Amino acid sequence: MTLPTPRQGALSHLKVLDLSRVLAGPWCTQMLADLGADVVKVERPIAGDDTRHWGPPFMPDTDGQPTPHATYFTACNRNKRSVTIDMSTLEGQGLIQQMALQSDILVENFKVGGLAHYGLDYASLKALNPRLIYCSITGFGQTGPYAERAGYDLMIQAMSGMMSITGRADGAPGGGPQRAGVAITDVFTGIYATSAILAAVEMRHRTGEGQHIDMALLDVGMAILANQAAGFINTGAEPQRMGNAHPSLVPYQDFPTLDGAMLLAIGNDGQFARFCAAAGRPEWAQDARFTTNTLRVEHRATLVPLMSETTRTRTTADWIALLEDKAVPCGPINTLASAFADPQVQARGLVLKQPLAKTNSAPDAPESIANDMKKGAAEIRTVASPMRLSAAPVQLRYAPPALGEHTTEVLQELGLDAARIQSLQQQGVV
After folding, report:
1. At the fourth CATH level, which superfamily is domain 252-335?
2. Which among 28, 85, 176, 325 is placed 20 to 30 Å from 94, CA to CA?
3. Alpha-carbon dihedral of residues 311, 316, 317, 323, nearest 10 degrees?
């Protein structure tokens, strides 16, 4: 067996046809691309992926002025090649079918039944390529009374109950349901989809056949309720919004400091005792109300105000310095600026810089695409993949692509000659 080299990546043997847009699907395919898969992203001519226009913020040009390119798109489209194909045309459908014949995996997030109109649904493509692993991502899945509905992350955070447990209590200042600051169900759906796809690849090794994967944002939204869901379905007790506090652990929340606030994430009795000793209040660890976590949860309303009085006596930095060598989890509440300036974040190399596509990287691109490239920034920065494989590390091959940047290249790989490609361009098919 031939093993991939580090330059190739762990999934360099796989070809992925990406018919998805916005976030959940592209997040999945970016993960596959980061691991080495050849991901070809099919976009609508002229418009492209919706997130290319979801701004502000927009990418700055070399003079610091905003361009037409939204930064949103860059978050989930690294390491992919972009082609533009109008799938509403017979020629476009034929091209995508040809691509599916050469692909191992297809990821799409059209409405249920939407691709059947174009002969690009699972049943149609399975007949052409039985080895194809076909992953459909929708709001509510392929079955059930809501299957036909469109679904967006904000809706799912609300419908799943996630917002009911996120935010401060109704009686507290600013109380009420809140969404998370990022589209967490979209992101988690992309991650779950990646896991399912890799499981299907492994199964194909044994059976020789692909399969259909049905991923639903609502299913994922319910699954990531985790311990909160487990508590409810086993006891019937509805969890309540608690701000930054934890329903099962105390102290596990934000505390005021002399110059702001900090987080304490104490998960066991030993950590609590070490905190008390460091804070000059060793008697708390011996207090009958606080000796175990269960008791501390019961007496939360007494303990938290006592601790808050003490935490206000030092700055956040002083608390972190005091507790760091005592194995007491403690940290600042960073802004993004502070987080990316953090020495640990910098040491891990979590910001990647890639040069933006230039006209000379796609010499045969139509004039509209070439002009689009010229309007870009000098470089694109993305957050590094957290997947660290020692034998096949993530490689940076492509920056988030310009719209249609690789159309000619991919069509040539399908066997189309220059005259045929030019004809398709003139017809507006690609």
Report:
1. formyl-coa transferase, domain 3 (3.30.1540.10)
2. 28
3. 40
